[in-house]
Amino acid sequence: MPTAELLKSREVTENHLRVARSLLLPEVVALHAQSLSQFAEFLDHNELGLAFDWLDSIARESQWSSISLLASLELAALNMGRDDDARPLRIRINELADQ
Question: Domain range for residue 19?
Fold first, then answer.
């Protein structure tokens, strides 16, 4: 049985992922409707790592210039302890901020 701490961590990660999803532009949502359906299914089954991977892929392909989207993904990655996934997001955020 998951601990209260683990449940809270999952909730935080899921929230970051939902915020990131909400930041997708309508045209990106339309283009990736099937992938976003899969993302939602992963969230429903508490497969947060897979949900992150799908959303990260969509962001890289279609909306790689949205600092707020990338920041939400970075926070989700960090909360899951996925530093190797968070690092390129932070680098991209810094590149965009320097422009």
Answer: 4-98
Contact at 8 Å (CB) between 73 and 87? no
Q: What is the pTM of this model?
A: 0.96
**82 residue type, one letter:** R
Site of tokens 């999803």: 21
Domain count along the chain = 1
Residue where the block lists tokens 């929230």: 15
57, 36 Cβ separation under 8 angstroms: no
Q: How far is CA 42 from CA 48, 54, 56, in A?
A: 7, 9, 14
Tens of pLDDT, residues 23-62: 999 999 999 999 999 999 999 999 999 999 999 999 999 9
- Rounded Cα gap, residues 10 and 14, in angstroms: 6
- Give the burial class of 29: count Cβ atoms within 10 A of its Cβ; 0-12 exposed, 13-18 middle, 19 or more buried: middle
8 A C-beta contact, residue 62 and residue 28: yes
